[in-house]
Amino acid sequence: MKNKIICIYCMGDYGLETYFKLLEKGVKADFFADRDSGKHGYALDGLFCKSYEELLQEDREQVILIVAIKKPETLISHFRQKGFPDVYDKETAVELLAGDKQPMKKEPLRKIAQIEQMKLEIQELLYKNGKAMPGEMQEILQDYEIRHAAIKR
């Protein structure tokens, strides 16, 4: 699976969770893809979200596709029928891709600026086009703000 492109399909809560789990394990995704046209082109930590059609233009043999939704079975089957051989649910993908990688060293106090920047990018992404932030994401951001305030004290 070396030298393959990693795509997280669906840039919702599960997609973001998958992205951060992979990052924690030292694995960097290459891009997101989603059918929701409101998410296309948005960047998170330097990654862009491609459309379903753009995903289908990728070299299918070179893409590891992670379907990051609650019940991924139907989409996994769909993408395999479309010719993508490496399609996985989020749990399986994290396990496979993290395999022999060393977990990233967690240094929260040194990464505050990076977390602040990512928070702003996520908020911008979620508020773009007047869309309200999903409840779970709002709770995550509120939890972050509480923790960040405690660290500053």
Topology:
Elements: E1 5-9, H1 13-24, E2 31-33, E3 43-44, E4 47-50, H2 52-56, E5 63-67, H3 73-81, E6 86-89, H4 90-98, H5 112-127, H6 135-152
Helix pairs in contact: 1-4
What does this structure look like?
There is one protein chain. By secondary structure, the protein is an alpha/beta fold. Helices cover 45% and strands 15% of the residues. It is built from 6 helices and 6 strands. It has helices at residues 13-24, 52-56, 73-81, 90-98, 112-127, 135-152; strands spanning 5-9, 31-33, 43-44, 47-50, 63-67, 86-89. Strands 3-4-2-1-5-6 form a 6-stranded mixed beta sheet, sandwiched between helices. α1 packs parallel to α4.
Q: Spans of 5+ residues with little confidence (pLDDT < 50)?
A: 102-106
Number of helices: 6
Quote the distance from N terminus to C terminus: 45 Å
Q: Overall mean pLDDT score?
A: 81
Radius of gyration: 16 Å
- Write down the overall geometry: globular
The largest beta-sheet arranges its strands as 3-4-2-1-5-6
> Beta fraction of the residues?
15-25%
Element-by-element helix/strand order: EHEEEHEHEHHH
Largest sheet: 6 strands, mixed
Number of β-strand runs: 6
